[in-house]
Amino acid sequence: MIRATYRLQFHKDFPFREAMAHARYFTDLGVSHIYSSPILCARAGSRHGYDVIDHSRVNPELGGEEDFRSMCAALASHGIGVILDIVPNHMAVGKADNRWWLDVLAKGRESRFAHYFDIDWDAPGMEGKILAPFLGAPALDAFAKGDLRLVRDESGWAFAYFDHRFPLRPQDQEGPHADPEALLARQHFLLTDWREADARINWRRFFDINDLAALNVNDQPVFEATHAKILALYAEGLIQGVRVDHIDGLADPAAYCRLLRQRLDGLRPGGLILVEKILADGESLPADWSVDGTTGYDFMNEVSAVLHARDGRLEDLWQRQSGRGLDFEGEEQVARRQMLLTKFASQRKAAARALKKVLGHDEETLDAAQIAVIERLRCYRTYANGKFDSPGAGPFLLKALDQSARDLPHLKPAIGAIQDLFARRDGDTCTIDAIRRFSQLSAPVAAKAVEDTAFYRYGRLLSRNDVGFDPRIPCISVADFHARMAERAGSLPRSFLATATHDHKRGEDTRARLAVLSRLPGVWEDFIATAPDPGNVDRADAYHLYQTLLGAWPEGAADEHFAGRILGWCTKYLREAKLRSDWTAPNGAYERAFRDFARMLILAPQHAPFRARLQDLLNRVSTQSEENALIQIVLRNTVPGIPDLYQGCEFQDLSLVDPDNRRAVNFSERAATLAAGNNGKQSLIARLLDLRRRDPLLWACGDYRPLLPEAENLLAFSRQHGTSRLLVLARLCTDPPYTEIHLECDYFDLLHEKWVAAGSVTTAALLDGAPILVLHASG
User: What φ, ψ does residue 32 adopt, rounded to 5°?
Assistant: First the structure.
């Protein structure tokens, strides 16, 4: 039974043998499964494993299959299984390490792997070639400079550009070759500057990343080739389930998930299937996917939102500080349009051509119509597929279509044609292709525009800007939280419950600290009023920085190490926001000015008064932020679902966005601390996980019953299965209105280790000054 998981990030500096060495710690902590990052053979030096180059092998940098088997055996001897992260959407390409890709470059559409990748061989101007945008300059300039040259190695003749290889056609392998430029023109690939990719690329990428090419995993041969090793590991019992990365990138997520379920259950029923899915507010995971749930971004949003209070002063303060005049709705729409016109220009035009093919309208008009609709779409995608089992457009797309038609009446006929298209269930090839291209465009546009752009532009309160969150919704009520938990209990009791991930923008304790500002807007406003003049730094950027410093400031004085972390964040923040700098065209002068300002705030003597005021503010929010952190832990480990603990987060997690949230974890220190019992957060986690171990059916099968549903700032619920009972109580502010609650039996107070007698008692007496209460009765 999967009770609780611990996420590990494997790479060459943390291979399987490291996890093996700490197996005893994981079982002492109380987890039942390790939730592993991808393990198939990735590009050399990969720190995350999502850049797979060979699906048939376990990554040798991690120790290969032999060490993986040893790790699984060591974990199993301590009662721990493995859930594996898998990557069906894309592979790493370029360089000289992906044999499928190299074969496609050499043989073009005649390669046996040509259909493995999502390549538009008939794109205008490509004449059956594949764009290879891996040069730093036009091909002729690269030749003249000597960076691009013709070489012969053990694989034959190829064009070489640093560590990239572009193999010649089989008929050109004889050599010798006197005129490389003429030879290049005959190949199946078209070498270009990487900057041309956005406008010209004729294959689908993972987002806008040139060295990650999308796969046609919904084709049966591709599915079999990419899943054979995973299925073999599952068949042997080495893994007990999978987490599917970026499910919305696939052509038909529902069909893929059902096939995966069929294959797993055919080998051994009961395997866990979770999907990485960003659910919009009001969106549910489709019931016909045959999966167990999501990876927990939805819960991370819910538990964050219930800890926040609503106060319009924060919005007003942001508007004054930034001068941008946009709420998050406006920021998202601007960012979506920007992504459609720039990063996804070529993919957008391909979708417009597919729409024209089936709808017959003018291509330019259809392109404008799809831009308008995707701008206004407030979810990742629709799951209409044009087949007989299509669920149709869905409410989010219908709303976007309606808004687009009202806002842009001159496009109404084309928008209406798109709406009719998504209602079709005729199974026509052109219909299916047009719907697929639209949906596989809208999903990455949402990711890049919202998480990787608008979240870095809009700064009302950064604790509400994270993966799976919606900054339009600053908080949710206790009643709303209860409704969401009850729904999860009924439909997805094995869904993950996460409060930190390898993708989060801010650590769980960083968010818990910033959330307090929603209850103290006046205090925050006073602090900002005394903040140093940022000089040449934009005031909106400075406002993001002030929040980041407050959220991540270490206990005690900041030092050079902390400054280095913040400076790394500064660069990523500016480039993701894409307002004053960008990854493709960095503004070095402004980036230096921003980093210099940040460094002075942290270390310069003249800003000691600022740091003193910051410390005063930290002292003011510390009690509530620590209580928020404890409430997050209790809810993650007691509501319906499977709690997931991200590596290292059993200690305080004041991390920032990657790579900061993927720093090395000292497991030996954590094992020693667990044995000593002197870390409050870790001890609480261990105590709750021990209860899950002792009473597993309560968590796997227990119901969810809201208590005190009308009480504000008091969150109480019970869970029951058979004679086992659980009661949880949390106060969300320091002085909530207390009330009376009836205990139907004697309970054991898990946190204070004492018995509480049956009968009526006030919530104030039960909490006795603590922010949380966990009562358990086993019958």
Answer: -100, -20
Per-residue model confidence as pLDDT tens digits over 616-631: 999 999 999 999 999 9
Q: How far is CA 176 from the centre of its chain?
A: 50
CA angle 457, 467, 555 (to 5 degrees): 80
Which residues lie closer than 8 Å to 312 by C-beta, 6 or more apart?
Answer: none
* DSSP state string for 45-88: T-SSS-SEEEEEEE-GGGTHHHHHHHHHHHHHHTT-EEEEEE--
Q: What share of the chain is helix, strand, coil (3-state, %, to 5)?
A: 50, 15, 35
* CA end-to-end span of the chain: 22
User: 620: buried, middle or exposed (CB in 10 Å: 19+, 13-18, 0-12)?
Assistant: middle
Burial 639-668 (b: 16+ CB within 10 A, else e): bbbbbbbbbbbbebbbbbbbebbbeebebe
Give the three-class secondary structure for 511.
helix
Phi, psi of 716 (to 5 degrees): -135, 140
- In whole angstroms, what is the distance from residue 650 CA to residue 674 CA? 10
Give residue-wise pLDDT tens across range 10-45: 999 999 999 999 999 999 999 999 999 999 999 999
pLDDT of residue 738: 85
Instruction: Give yes or no for a contact between 40 and 52, defined as CB atoms under 8 angstroms apart.
Output: yes
Q: 3-state DSSP call for residue 460?
A: coil
* Spatial separation of the C-alpha atoms in residues 19 and 68, rounded to whole Å: 10
3-state SS, residue 432? helix
Whether 557 shows a pLDDT value over 90: the answer reads: no
Beta strand 189-193 with 33-36 is unpaired
> Looking at 630-694, which runs of residues are DSSP E strands?
642-646
Angle at 319 between CA 533 and CA 601, to 5 degrees: 25
In the three-class reduction of DSSP (H, G, I as helix; E, B as strand; rest coil), residue 254 is classed as helix
Q: pLDDT band at residue 63, thresholds of 50, 70 and 90?
A: very high
In degrees to the nearest 10, what's the CA dihedral of 118, 122, 127, 131?
Answer: -30
Is the Cβ–Cβ distance between 576 and 452 less than 8 Å? Answer: yes
What are the tens digits of pLDDT across the range 225-257?
Answer: 999 999 999 999 999 999 999 999 999 999 999
3-state secondary structure of 164: strand
- Name the region of 768 (left: φ>0; alpha: ψ -120 to 50; beta: rest): left
Q: What is the pLDDT of residue 22?
A: 97
Residue 418 has pLDDT above 80, yes or no: yes
DSSP state of 771: S
Q: What is the DSSP string of 271-338?
A: -EEEE---PPTT----GGG---EE-SHHHHHHHHHHH----HHHHHHHHHHH-----HHHHHHHHHHH
Distance CA 403, CA 301 (A): 27
